[in-house]
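Problem statement: downstream parser choked on a complex file, so we are re-checking the raw output for the adenosine-5'-triphosphate run. The parser issue turned out to be on our end (a line-ending mismatch), but while we're here, posting the original submission so the record is complete.
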Amino acid sequence: MTEPLLEARGLTMHFPVRGGAIFKRRVGSVQAVDGIDLTVHEGESFGLVGESGCGKSTTGRLLARLLEPTAGKITYAGRDITHSSRKELAPIRSEIQMIFQDPYSSLNPRHTVGSIVAGPMEVNDIDPPGGRKKRVQELLETVGLNPEHYNRYPHEFSGGQRQRIGVARALALEPRLIVADEPVSALDVSIQAQVVNLLQRLQRDLGIAFVFIAHDLAVVRHFSQRIAVMYLGKIVEVADRADLYGNPQHPYTHALLSSVPEADPDSEAHRERIRLTGDVPSPINPPSGCRFRTRCWKAQDICASEEPPLVQLTSATSGHLAACHFPESRQVIPESD
Ligand SMILES: Nc1ncnc2c1ncn2[C@@H]1O[C@H](COP(=O)(O)OP(=O)(O)OP(=O)(O)O)[C@@H](O)[C@H]1O
């Protein structure tokens, strides 16, 4: 196998929590991301899924090195960028781009589409052959917008169109990797598929690798080749799409899968509905051992005393890892492509 494009080992982000009379004393930390390993290969779409607050956005920002981790290591194209300075990161900034969830707040309302999309070229002092305007117009066309809309303002566009403007901006510097943080969750369901299809086309045609962050498994189902499931700062399962959907091992993955809407109503009969009870525990003081144990119907004493490692399980195919003392291999939803 070729060298990974991006690799994280033991990646950790603990945010300090301050207290005391003038909020100067550190009284604890939010364990937003706690020692995760993941690998993204050139040109692949890697999905990262989990409930709100589990640490997905923080992971995305760490991978794009918008945040510096409190521990662990990030390697990009063979180079350790964990603690690289702003200056050292400059050449990499153009190769790793982000698309944000909210197309309303991520575009400056006072700037024209032309200047928004040309922004990264301006910041990096890049003059493409034919000029910036021509390049912006090509990019607008690539994302399915009219190049003549160059002089318009964000408020003149619908939510889906604004997200396309954000995608065009992310493409401006010909990135090798795009971290897309819930890029469709703020959009109407009818528009979501159009934007996902656009990203899928870019991944295929331009060979761009994606880290696609979503809070449910329905969105990444047709987009990501490999998917990691995250719970309270930890990765609990990672597998190829077919293995994850067809042979989930971790109880939390089962629960997430059971809430994915099924296109074929007949298959509902095979579906076991799992309703998770209780809230996700606080990341300030997460449970010892397995973090999912407080909501897990299979939990036993060992789950409280020992944290299960993320390992290859005998009941799973090669490369399918799960962190559970009592994994199960049950067909929940057959993969239908
Ligand atoms: N700058 C920060 N300072 C302190 N805590 C933070 C900071 N950023 C995130 N957190 C906390 O870290 C945890 C993980 O947040 P994060 O936004 O990464 O989760 P998420 O899975 O992306 O959630 P969502 O889907 O709601 O955006 C949360 O408890 C959040 O409140």
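For whoever reads this later: Residues 331-337 have pLDDT under 50 and may be disordered.
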